Amino acid sequence: MRGVRHLLHLIGRFTRQIDRRPPSPRLAAWAERHLLPGERALWIRLGNGDRRHAIGVAQRFAESRAVSTRAEIAGALLHDIGKVDGPDGAISRAWMTVNPRSGAATRRYRDHERIGAELCERAGSDPVTIDLIRGAGSDELVQALKAADSSSGFQRP
Length: 157
Description:
This protein is 67% helix and 0% strand. The chain has helices at 2-18, 25-33, 37-43, 48-64, 70-77, 90-98, 104-110, 112-122, 127-134, 139-150. It contains 10 helices and no strands. With 157 residues, the chain is mainly α. The radius of gyration is 14 Å and the shape is globular.
């Protein structure tokens, strides 16, 4: 069952990359309320599909944890920020996700958590945000983020 959920997640991510529509103004405003100025500068570099995905993940994360802080929600919003300089095309990203070979570009794409944490550290993010992006810190937070991310499937915020 886990493999099927993962496959649906990947298919959902692929279809969102094809759809170039920006997030709705309401959802974009919700996201930006949770970001510090340096984080917003990173956020606007993400493609529309990545921003829509991140908003959906962050909203599911916040709904699962009624006590979520701004820094935690920012971590959920920016969990894929390390992919910002990766390939833009849906086919290239899909290939890097499933390709058994590991060239430099693929390794960089797959190392997006570390890269994203470094970007956010330079942008002045809270240590809680950085840890969450890195997949470190509180096990409860990390698991809540993983659950919110893996349940994205075909959902479209």
